[in-house]
Batch of 3 targets.
Target 1
Amino acid sequence: MYVAVKGGERAIANAHALLAEQGRGHPELPAIDPAQVEGQLGVLVSRVMTEGSLYDPALAARAVLQAQGDVLEAVTLMRSYRTTLPRFGYTCAVDTAGLAPQRRISATFKDLPGGQQLGATFDYTHRLFSTPSSGADVPDRHDGSPDADDPAMPRVADLLGVGALIEPDARPGQDAAEPGDLTREPSVFPMSRAERLQALARSDEGFLLGLAYSSQRGFGTTHPFAGEVRVGEVEVEFDAPELGFAVPLGRIEVTECQMVNQFTGSAETPAQFTRGYGLAFGRSERKAMSMSIVDRALRGAEFDERVASPVQDEEFVISHGDNVAATGFVEHLKLPHYVDFQAELMLVRKLNAEFEEAHA
């Protein structure tokens, strides 16, 4: 560390005190309660949970407050805490096909079985600052949960699948082996699609957004249609081998996105649409959409497509998408590098001397 700093441990303690003072803000203002963050900053909480790989809205709200709004610091807190938790086993795959959406839209069909459901969205706001409100004037509304007698809402991909217009949900032999757990095992390339999806779910939202944008602008081959975006709650079940059946644990809110991409076909495969998939905790539409675009771009080799752009390079995307690893590597530059810099300084001085001597 910075051994030349005066005060040693006392200086570090003072730094912590200053951080807490800055985070508290003006002492005459009431402190923010974590419940307020959880209830009023739900999109931020969803991102911290998704990239922190831990579904716990209350804990994510605490992390946001402790990190003073620094998303990456909050994600790091969540992942650090996650490593201390005991592992009892694995849950069953959630059944998103039966997800009762609070929000469900599709850009591919105007009239969908079950209809479009706008739900809570920024899509139609005017991007103007609203008048501060205490919440007392919020009108009564439906809670966004579908009624019991609502019509069925089949997936758009399933509708296309009826006429074999889209690739099957799972190809024969694809990912037949049990996928690895990237939270416990190192990444090994090439990865299965299931492992890639794990990594993409934990990846930084901004990084995936930039890659998805690059693919649409020509640095890749993916310019899809939003087949369907759903936001709603799904039940999580725990697989208990000693019981012989799955035990319901509760319900979590998720955002699911399926992108529909054109594929002209090949000598062995007829022309059909292909899929990109994204799933994230809470209200995370931008993350799920970006993830689904990048997922499809990384499947280029499956369709014998030319791989020439960064978004299509599995090792590049997966190795650089983790924001905790990226933060650590960038921020470690704040640590002392005295010896390294002195070596570089000596080298530059030597090269300058040789240059002046040669041009004397």
Note: The longest strand covers residues 245-263.
Target 2
Amino acid sequence: MFVLSSPSGAGKTSITRALLKQNDDLTISVSATTRPRRPGEVNGQDYYFVDKDRFSEMIAQGAFLEHAEAFGNFYGTPREPVEAALAQGRDVVFDIEWQGTQQLAEIAREDLVTVFILPPSAQALADRLHKRAQDSEETIQYRLSKAADEITHYSEYDYVVINQDFDESLARVQTILDAERLKRHRLTGLSGFVRGLKDGL
């Protein structure tokens, strides 16, 4: 499980999408949310859009690996598709906040790699939120005030990438993914391969 987190506007979603395009063996965890659908978003592809009653039912049923509230809306990772992908030997990337990352760490720390994306400056973060033109000015100011708290959680992550240049940041995240996949304990079938090498000598 490969987690990318950041304050709103720092780039985690853009990096996640680019990472998926260049890794056929990577699948994304699609979160459920109670927030309204934005223009162009597709249910089941960007998010599973549900109301608060349904979200509460899913919590009660243990249907989430993690869930959290952010900006007055609820977000959660459905358990079943993630566990199915992992069982097939696929890596799963998560675009989630620090609260959800903490919950995943509590249940599966050995299978988790976490990356925190920081903006290069406070001004750059504000500029990006204005540029994407998805929120009202009031919402943007609220997101910026929340970002001050969110960035204090960087030290809870395995890796930190400062997103000064998108292509460079994407390359660094790809390098992290590649290196983590090569860790000895993640190389399934390695002991059998080494046994075969030894027998052939």
Note: The mean pLDDT is 93.
Target 3
Amino acid sequence: MVKMTVREQIWQTEDALLAPYATRAQFTRGRAREEKQCDFRTAFQRDRDRIIYSNSFKRLKNKTQVFFAPEGDHYITRMTHTLDVSQISRSIARSLRLNEDLAEAIALGHDLGHTPFGHVGEKVLNKLAEAGFWHNEQSLRVVDVLEKGGRGLNLTFEVRDGILEHKSSGNPQTLEGQIVSIADRIAYINHDIEDAIRAGILTNEDLPARPISVLGQGTKQRIHTAIADIYENSYGKPVIAMSKEVESSIRELRAFMFERVYNLTNKVILERAERMLTELFTYFMKNTDKLPAPYKALLETWGTERAVCDYISGMTDQYAITVFENIFIPTTFSLGKE
């Protein structure tokens, strides 16, 4: 009798436990470059591991979510947001008997292409680049091209699709990808409320009464309400759905956050970030010889604008400031003794 690999055992477990319409690792649509399969992990588990160990993932801990360079250790960063999305996605996938490994991999990779200074940085690069710039497309470019010295991570079709299509305007081809898209909104709205209250921009009393009465008073309760509602409206069906009441409450809370927090906070960050990123973009467009070697290597194949956007979008907040200071701010010097 031939002994099964651990991967094959997991495949059997998926067949036994997952819903009929769940995405099974055994039947992935594969990778751009064919690889020998791992005996101990499924394709989606390997993708998750590749993302976690990537340099782009490590840099997320020093990228802004909403509040730039906050005074305090407990504000949400792009890294903690990503972990929030991963946890919520896994909870939803598990409850609906969908592929938890796939949902986790998509969630961990969905924001790898985010710029320094959060969505403000994305808006600035989108304005500067003739070809435009969107973080979901850049996240896919990170895993396809930029990681591993230009080889990319060679992820599966399903994970790549979920990363590209995670925005609310996207259309993920798997139910697991649809979960991450919803989990992203659930995570950032609720944890951004926590940060805004911590920063003194909001109080609990400022939150709009109707959506709070539906979703709950605290972060934990609101996230639980959303997950439970998705379960009630999706279990046993090949759809990821919410009730109209909960969905409209989340939309209303999101609109409130844009009016009272995001737009106001972004005005402060925008002026500084736009100045820095515009100067950096202009400088490197004219001085490609100053790009680090990995980005110089992209010039011939991808062009100057693409290489410059790759470099700037990969920066952490502090690294962008440091590069700006090194280029544009004169350092003090001594004339010495006569």
Note: Residues 43-116+140-268 form a domain with the Hypothetical protein af1432 fold (CATH 1.10.3210.10).
